[in-house]
Amino acid sequence: MKSFTAGTNEEGVRLSRFVESVTKDMPRSMMYKAFRNKRIKVNGKRAEPDTRLHQNDLIELYINDEFFPAGAAPAKKPPRRQPPVTVIYEDGNIAVLYKPAHLLCHSDRTGDANLVDAFAAYLQAKGEYDPHAEQRFAPAICNRLDRGTEGLVIAAKSYAALRDMNAIIRDNQMKKEYLTITVGTPPAGRHIAWLQHSEKSNKVRIHAREAEGYKQIITEVTPIRQNGPFTLCRIGLITGRTHQIRAHLAYLGHPVLGDIKYGNRKMNERTGLKTQALCAQRLTFDRIPQDNILHELSGRVIKLDDPAIVRQFDALSRSADSE
User: Which of 18, 167, 187, 313 could hold 232 in an S-S bridge, CB 3.0 to 4.6 Å?
Assistant: First the structure.
């Protein structure tokens, strides 16, 4: 028998998810059998898989020792060239971070530096996170940006913050706005289309009509300034699909400058840009319900005050004027 005491990061976690996090190689069928046979208890009483845990709950698992890890997992080493973290906003639950272009959001097989590990190192230096302690939640990010996109990324300090921020995003209680430089000037307004994603090529196609397997996309476009062949635009992301902004603007005939996957190769070569000119610049929160631990974000606007993409547009404009 193994026993655990729920901490702050287990507040609201489903009991079945907790059991999966502290066991190893136990078939799900065996876990549910343990529930049926009253071998999983909370505070001395039989519990169901969908029981929600609370801080200081005592969880008792009458499960064979072979399904528990032999020892604590070694702390994950930070990747090489770990970048410093730029914090735009922070409170006790979340932080909003600036991700530069080329930095990964999550680790991948390359082993390159990534924002999740950078944030964990930041919290560790502040004494808010100990990777060696017995805990089942590590700092996580709530939204992601493509590697070549810069801008704001939300990071959670606890499971409760991650859960409730995911609910905010899922329920469209937060508006995400981007700045981008396009080739030509796209039509202003709200544009609706359907997106088809190929996992094999990691590329999407945009269609005018709905069909099986297609996902609806909604993109708001507001041209801000135009100079020569380039336009600085504000993009409102109503839906958040893979490569949505880049592919949708290309479909409208005005691709993101520097985009090597969907962009205008001639213009990319002319300007020398090899990374898409796209920046997640502003987050605006609607009214958040009181039962959400992040409700104090209601009405808050978090933004980059001096995004590099504006200076980039100004430089391109000066170059166009001199030609």
Answer: 313
